[in-house]
Design goal:
Helix content is about 50%, strand content about 10%. It is α/β, with parallel strands linked by helices. The termini are far apart.
Length: about 210
């Protein structure tokens, strides 16, 4: 089941990599007439042009806007993952309108494991300025099921198996062991996620000016 933490605004853009998660989200929101267009950030990898073609073709077939940006800067002193993330977010924040990402419950768990091991466990925030993450309570398997059922084209990223990237190391090396310790890990983090969202909503209501 595809769940939404909050209602997605109309005329949003979907940050789309051409992978299964983002293509499923693009199609899911497009089916609900929510999508204005898709955003693609070209990382200049060996598969980047193929990814871009997948996203472009979906937009052309569905009469959606297609906006892309190619990485121009050379990598700075941060990790490659952090560098790419920073450059993508800079692109998304330039967009005049809400940008929806395909971050899901599995991403929340991986982020929680990563931050826990660094001594400060965190639940991934559901928004960052105009960047929205409404699908944090949806399992990755649900997004993949949507794409397969709807025959949505996507490409598997070859780098997803490269455990030199911290995200992949956590996904492939740590997650299986964590689920042995806690087979209900998805439920545990799902609960924490909704507790955090509930507290955020309460704080917003307290801070809202009364008329």
């Amino acid at each position: 089941m595809i769940r939404q933490l909050f209602k997605v605004p109309s005329s949003c853009y979907v940050a789309c990599s051409g992978g299964v998660d983002s293509m499923a989200v693009l199609d899911f929101l497009n089916k609900g007439n929510k999508v204005r267009g898709a955003l693609y950030f070209n990382h200049q990898t060996s598969q980047s042009n193929d990814f871009e073609s997948i996203v472009y073709q979906y937009c052309a077939d569905n009469s959606l806007e297609f906006l892309s940006k190619t990485l121009e800067k050379e990598k700075d002193e941060t990790s490659l993952e952090s560098f790419w993330s920073k450059e993508r977010n800079n692109f998304f924040k330039m967009i005049d309108g809400p940008v929806v990402t395909a971050h899901n419950l599995d991403d929340v768990i991986e982020w929680w494991i990563y931050t826990s091991l660094r001594g400060n466990p965190k639940i991934m925030p559901s928004s960052n300025k105009n960047i929205l993450r409404p699908f944090l309570s949806t399992k990755k398997s649900s997004l993949k099921s949507w794409a397969l059922t709807r025959n949505i084209d996507y490409i598997e990223d070859e780098t997803n198996k490269d455990v030199r990237f911290m995200r992949n190391f956590i996904r492939h090396q740590l997650m299986p062991g964590c689920q042995v310790v806690n087979p209900g890990l998805h439920k545990t983090i799902f609960k924490k996620l909704h507790e955090r969202e509930s507290n955020v909503s309460k704080n917003r209501r307290r801070c809202s000016p009364r008329i």
